[in-house]
Design a protein that fits this description.
This protein has 219 residues and is an alpha+beta fold. The chain has a single domain, classed as SOS response associated peptidase-like (hypothetical protein yedk fold), CATH 3.90.1680. The chain has 6 helices and 14 strands. The chain has a 5-stranded mixed beta barrel with strand order 2-3-11-10-7. It is globular and about 45 Å long. The chain starts with a strand and ends with a helix.
């Protein structure tokens, strides 16, 4: 599952796309991995706002407790029935839209993984169905829901972010538990809508998506 996403758009374009308020000092991160800041849209009293939160809820298994390890991170929601997520799934106030233009999967052989980037041809800015909350361990954090991948994603992975169409935004933020379940188990974006950008950049290089300009031209 993808553990890297990026936003290649200005705060003005993001605010216009989501019809959301944005602080003048908001910083668009170069890229987001678990534990690093990313951008989300959340709604309060009928108004959407853009916020910078760290990606990944605290994760502390029994084995980690026994070893005295600090909490790790989990940024992907694959099983809605997991007790870790069940209360959030019911709470509309915990839902958010994760902002991105690209996501990446590691590609290639073990020990020499490179970055393969994915974006959507007709969407310069994307929304990923997400959840957020304030945690004791890490403060405000978010995680993204995943779904079965379309044919463009393998062999890098068999799952992908649960992406939302523009008309889905309100239903994700305000819908029922049945709506949330439908979003996870519906058909993913069609494979022929995806742009696949393979690169020679090693996984931890910090290198940007190679053809960012194509997405910016859509704005």
């Amino acid at each position: 599952m993808s553990r890297l996403h990026a936003v290649r758009a200005s705060t003005a374009d993001i605010a216009a796309h989501f019809d959301a308020d944005v602080a003048p000092d908001l910083i668009v991160p170069e890229e987001t991995k678990e534990g690093l800041p990313g951008l989300i849209v959340r709604e309060t009293d009928g108004r959407r706002t853009i916020a910078s939160l760290d990606w990944g809820f605290p994760r502390l298994t029994q084995e980690m407790r026994e070893r005295g390890d600090p909490p790790g991170r989990i940024g992907l929601v694959a099983n809605l029935t997991n007790p870790m997520w069940d209360t959030m799934v019911l709470a509309q106030s915990c839902r958010c839209l994760i902002i991105l233009t690209h996501f990446a999967n590691p590609d290639g052989i073990a020990g020499a993984k490179t970055r393969t980037w994915f974006s959507v041809k007709d969407e310069p800015i994307l929304a990923w169905a997400g959840f957020w909350r304030n945690t004791r361990e890490f403060g405000p954090v978010y995680a993204g829901m995943t779904m079965a991948a379309n044919a463009a994603i393998p062999p890098t992975n068999d799952r992908m972010p649960a992406m939302l169409e523009h008309d889905d935004y309100d239903r994700w933020l305000h819908g029922s538990i049945e709506d949330v379940i439908r979003f996870q188990f519906r058909e993913p974006f069609a494979a022929d809508r995806m742009t696949i950008e393979r690169s020679e950049d090693v996984w931890n290089s910090g290198a940007a998506p190679p053809a960012t300009g194509r997405q910016l031209e859509l704005l």
